[in-house]
Amino acid sequence: MKHKIIGILICMLLLANISTVLGNTSEIPRRNIAGIGPNLAPNPSFEEGNTMPVGWTYDPNTTGIFHWDSNYAHSGEKSVGILNLTNIYPYEIMWITTDFIPVNETINSSYMLSVWFKFIDIPNYQYAWIRILGYDISYQPTGGSGHGEGSSDTEWHQISGDTWYDHGQTKYVKLEIGQAFNLPYKPNPLIEIRFDDVYFGIWNIAPNTPTITGETNGKVRTLYDYTISTIDPNQDNVTYEIDWGDNTTQTTAFYKSGEEIIIPHIWGIERTYSVRVKAIDEYRAESDWATLTVTMPCSYNKPIPQFLESLFQRFPHAFPILRQLLGY
């Protein structure tokens, strides 16, 4: 019984010392990366055209004054602009693509529309507005997804919005970029907004947080198998980064989304470990960390006299309770 109590005390002291040294480990934040597919937006930097930019037009029945010239550009030589926004319905003025853009409704992902915008003067309750308009196989509207973003300066900013609302019916889309304002305020019609570098394509979604299962209460110097899997919303292949909690890390090969893999590991020191694993897809989008607590129980059947003797010699004034129990 005396030996058992001593062993338990040793384990508690060692684990406390380890916790103090290692401290808390913060998680790496999740990251998404956009634009994994081709850019489906026509003439995205507005460089091509004669009297109008190829692939884009506007509604001449609105109050808008539309520019396409080389006065401002985020990249290249040209950009499109809009001014003369008033508080007359429809409360927005837009450039819109002329043709229907086919989309693949079977892809388990979202499409993203983004564009760089710049106000020429400080806006007055006005903001950049982008919208994706959906159409079915008969070119009938199926809905839309829009996003607005304001600015308090005249620098270039990027606005982006992802969708989707109806993969089942939507076969085509049109894109809109323009200027809108907040009711009941009155916009300043002299404020011009410029757009450049449009992107419309598939938005890469990070893999789901993986699952890890396996032995959580075992013995040291024994090989244990751990099963890991995740689902990638885009069905991309994924690799796993594993932190075993014992100062060893491991990166696996790439595997299919949803595929279960088995990774063995052996523990050399009796203690409690926090195992972490995250999934990274082939476009480098990372999931959140998954964690699993693994305990390799401390052995309390036999004390270790040589270890204790060396410990007491190194710390002559430490562990008074152990010294008393052992008669040192």
Write a structural description.
The protein is mostly beta strands and 328 residues long. The chain has two domains: 129 residues, Immunoglobulins (Immunoglobulin-like, Sandwich), CATH 2.60.40.10; 148 residues, Galactose-binding domain-like (Jelly Rolls, Sandwich). 12% of the residues lie in helices and 36% in strands. The protein contains three helices and 18 strands. The strands form four sheets. Strands 1, 4, 5, 7, 8 and 10 form a six-stranded antiparallel β-sheet that branches. A five-stranded antiparallel β-sheet has the order 2-3-11-6-9, with no helix packed on it. Strands 15-14-17-18 form a four-stranded antiparallel β-sheet, with no helix packed on it. Strand 14 and strand 15 form a beta hairpin. It is elongated. The two termini are 18 Å apart. The N terminus is likely disordered.
List the helices and strands and how they pair.
Elements: H1 2-22, E1 56-58, E2 65-69, E3 79-83, E4 92-97, E5 101-102, E6 110-119, E7 126-135, E8 141-149, E9 157-162, E10 172-181, E11 193-203, E12 211-214, E13 223-229, E14 238-243, E15 249-251, E16 261-266, E17 272-281, E18 290-295, H2 305-314, H3 320-326
Antiparallel strand pairs: 1-4, 2-3, 3-11, 4-10, 5-10, 6-9, 6-11, 7-8, 7-10, 12-13, 13-16, 14-15, 14-17, 17-18
